[in-house]
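Reminder to self: tokens first, then the designed residues, so the page reads top to bottom the way the pipeline ran.
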């Protein structure tokens, strides 16, 4: 019965979004011994962590990993989009009463405007 209850946690930990920092957090949360290597290379190695005792911690860490992965993906898309946009600077002559100054205006080309 314990093994059947552990399977959903094992599935969560098998996610591609688990990074070394998440495994370190799991190791800290479970109080795993220093000699235990995470991520484990075998199911037996994962079962030694007694995941049922740390159900909430495992779920929180996996949820955080999924959210961070989503954020990293969005940031990468934003970076790719903005790296291809050329900013155009045009001078603007501002006159306010006796005060005159040139102000640079930033814009983007129509092909980059959505």
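Designed residues (114 positions):
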């Amino acid at each position: 019965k314990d093994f059947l209850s552990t399977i959903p946690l094992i599935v969560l930990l098998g996610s591609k979004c688990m990074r070394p920092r998440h495994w370190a957090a799991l190791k800290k949360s479970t109080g795993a011994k220093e000699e235990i290597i995470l991520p484990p290379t075998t199911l037996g190695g994962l079962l030694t962590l007694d995941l049922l005792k740390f159900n909430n911690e495992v779920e929180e860490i996996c949820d955080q990993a999924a959210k961070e992965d989503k954020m990293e993906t969005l940031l990468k898309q934003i970076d790719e989009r903005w790296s291809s946009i050329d900013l155009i600077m045009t001078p603007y002559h501002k006159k306010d009463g006796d005060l005159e100054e040139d102000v640079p205006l930033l814009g983007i080309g129509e092909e980059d405007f959505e």
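The chain has four helices and two strands.
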